[in-house]
Known about the structure:
By secondary structure, the chain is of the alpha/beta class. The longest helix has 21 residues, at about 415-435.
Amino acid sequence: MDLSAADLKAAEAKSTEETATHGEAAESNEVFTTVIDAKEEPSGFAGFGFSEALVKTLTEKGYKEPSPIQAAAFPELMLGRDLVGQAQTGTGKTAAFALPLLERLQKDATKPQALVLAPTRELAMQVAESFKAYSAGHPHLNVLAIYGGSDFRSQIHALKRGVDVVVGTPGRVMDHMRQGTLDTTGLRSLVLDEADEMLRMGFIDDVEWILDQLPEERQVVLFSATMPSEIRRLSKRYLREPAEITIKTKEKEARRIRQRCITLQNSHKLEALNRVLEAVTGEGVIIFARTKAITLNVSESLEAAGHDVAVLNGDVPQNQRERTVERLRKGTVNILVATDVAARGLDVDRIGLVINYDMPFDSEAYVHRIGRTGRAGRSGEAILFVTPRERRFVNNLERAVGQEIEPMAIPSNAEINQSRLDKLRQRLTDAATGEPNQSDEAVLLQELLQRVGQEHDLDPSRLALAALTLAVGDGPLLVQGDESWIQNSGRQRFDRRDGRDGRDGRFGDRRRSERASRPPEDNMQRYRVEVGHRDRVKPGNLVGAIANESGLQGRMIGRIQIFESHSFVDLPKGMPQDVFSSLQRLKVMNRELQISPAS
């Protein structure tokens, strides 16, 4: 029977609608049939077979054009194919898998249909929030994030009520699967997000266990910033004829993050950090440290210098972590000191500066740390602190990012002073040129200025200068201290932090004769403290503890020599007796210093 042109067009349109609804690939090569009006070329997200509700949601949220990883992944995932995607962080990977998965969900399913595995709680929360945002036009869909540190029973109740998409960390997903509270028999899709990080964190065995429990017929999607051999092996074992997508970062995109490094002695890090924060402006700052103890030491030092700081490490409870990230996102806190627990899943657009206070453990960790800035098309800065012995590792990091890490000097007094003046000028300009303040307090202040000016016959400029001086406060506006240590900080071959000689890396200092040690400088006095190598003490421990207790700046503490059972510390002459007494009771590494003048 012959069909008219109108009948043929209607049949084609019906075929297209059914294919998009069920999301199932047909046996023939012609999976999708699309009728396009030549006068209205599809653009943006409208050409991938997404529903009108999803396209409308994306438009309302300001999404205009798909990123390269999204444009390449959408067609493959809409066909139900397995996929291996490699792209750097911040390239839009979450939307690349979330949008097709949402479109392929069945409305009346009673079991979870999609499972996303993420390496950290923060990333799991972020991905779940993205799913919820994208599904605004699909109110019947339910998304649940499950991870350690949150209430297990509430997660069970949510799973019993019915969930379409589960986003979780491997450990907590395994717990639910073993207890039978997460039914995976209805899963149609599994996503491994940040697979290389799961490998680095030791989760690959857990991931393979989860994969082995899943239905035989399912779609598996793997996204990773790098492709180590173990991840390749995983994809070959569990993915069937996957589409492979590799997105190389464009040169101009890579250059959005300016990367620099400062070579310095470990004992100068705190002072250098304060100088960098003064001279390098960033809307939001993340400082990455290697251990939880260092995050606390750094945050205490910055708080003492007047900064508003938050800490994020493994000891911080989950609910407090969430509040901390939200404060950073809203700008109520501007500096976050964190271990690598925050290097994943921390998606805050306003981060303008990342400081690697400690050298990261590997290149992948560095890539993900600096990826916290330069997001959403913005520019950013990353500054790395390296000791002289760590300089040889910088080349590895440069190869990982495909970009030079420029050398940078510790900001001088002149740079800090100029930065302070620039900030003050900007604040004054904003206050003077902004909308007039019509509040009752503003009126009172204006009357006060007029009254003082009339009573003392003051010139307006003199009155303005007095008001500005009051606004600056009692502390000096300009830095005028000694900065000779800056030039010498990165040039010494001997690393005082651990007593190693740069030539053979052995702990020769432990056996060095005390009598061979040079005397203290004229303005310094040498003290003995009863902690040493046996207590695993490092110069940074002594500097941080003494600085916090005495109020001295880190750079004012002189030479530190650590021996097996004791150490010598050079401090400024004329130490007040009350400060000396408090230092005697001060504990470092759980041992009292018992400080006394060295003979």
